[in-house]
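In practice, a research group might receive sequence data for several interacting partners and want a quick structural hypothesis before committing to experiments. The following worked case mirrors that situation: the sequences arrive first, and a predicted assembly follows.
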Amino acid sequence: MSETKRVAVLLADGFEEGEAVVFIDIMRRLDIEVDVLSCMETTALNTYFKTKITADYTLIEKFDETYDAVMMPGGPQGTDNLTANTSVIAFLKRHIDANKYICALCSSGAKVLAAHHLLQGRPYTTGDKLADKFDDGDFRIQKVVVADNFITGRGLGVSFEFAFTVAKYLLSDNQEKVDWQANHIYFDH
Amino acid sequence: MSETKRVAVLLADGFEEGEAVVFIDIMRRLDIEVDVLSCMETTALNTYFKTKITADYTLIEKFDETYDAVMMPGGPQGTDNLTANTSVIAFLKRHIDANKYICALCSSGAKVLAAHHLLQGRPYTTGDKLADKFDDGDFRIQKVVVADNFITGRGLGVSFEFAFTVAKYLLSDNQEKVDWQANHIYFDH
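A structural hypothesis for the assembly, expressed as tokens:
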């Protein structure tokens, strides 16, 4: 049996709760360990649509750990807060250098990855019109785009496709498990 | 402009967080008011996959209010807790008698509605094999089933279809708004 995979989910005030929670849920259903990390001062978080959600730890507490994947959801203020946070950018850069998966849903693809030139011209997707604002990245109109270790998704409505794509890369030696879970939850795939 | 619609989401320890959060998120995106109600002693809740989520109020605080719809997610222990709670059943019966929408995702259709003979033989859907345990209800293998005021969904993977179906009934005078939002989040519908 292969080693348990570990994923960090980076949340900041204003994050899109459906995008975050579907991802966390699918990962944990597949026995992938998830640390939900607040990129604010405390684990208490404000969300885009006011669902009351708290992180497991702050990013600072787990800053020196290295995960197999780092995931960011969208939400306009959430991605404003992520992109302005130098610890978030340093954490992402270290994971990019270590060849880990960088998984960005919705506006985080443009507003965090492209804004900081982290895509280095790679194909990616994000919400409409956001890509126009940044030089970096080769924007594609697709539900999910995989380019090297970067996995990006369009938005909330592709949350399941995005999560299962990440899972298929993390569990590349056990696609049956991923397919079984998608069938188990009645997700058309 | 029509009156703002109001929805109660009933949560108990062990609820399926993706099913609950996608539903709450889609409702609030459509300006439908949502009260997230804990059916436990306090608003603090345990979830199926350990995402830290807190309710807005306890059911007891809002017990006498009448909502346009009542929603329940699945999660094995969550629906065990809902079905054993006499306040939950009384709250549902009052809303059924008042002709409000009763929206049950995943195991809650079988384990709460059918178990308490609330379906009165109506067509419904729920997770595999759960329907066999109960006499009430006419089980269908469909993503979402609508029968009178009862809207039921198969499981987590149909969360978006389920939420948008409920929204279309609640906002029957404004289908354009519902369709716009589904397109906006890139949900294929």
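Before designing any experiment, note the following. Residues 17-29 of chain A form the longest helix (13 residues). Residues 183 and 189 of chain A are 8 Å apart (CA to CA).
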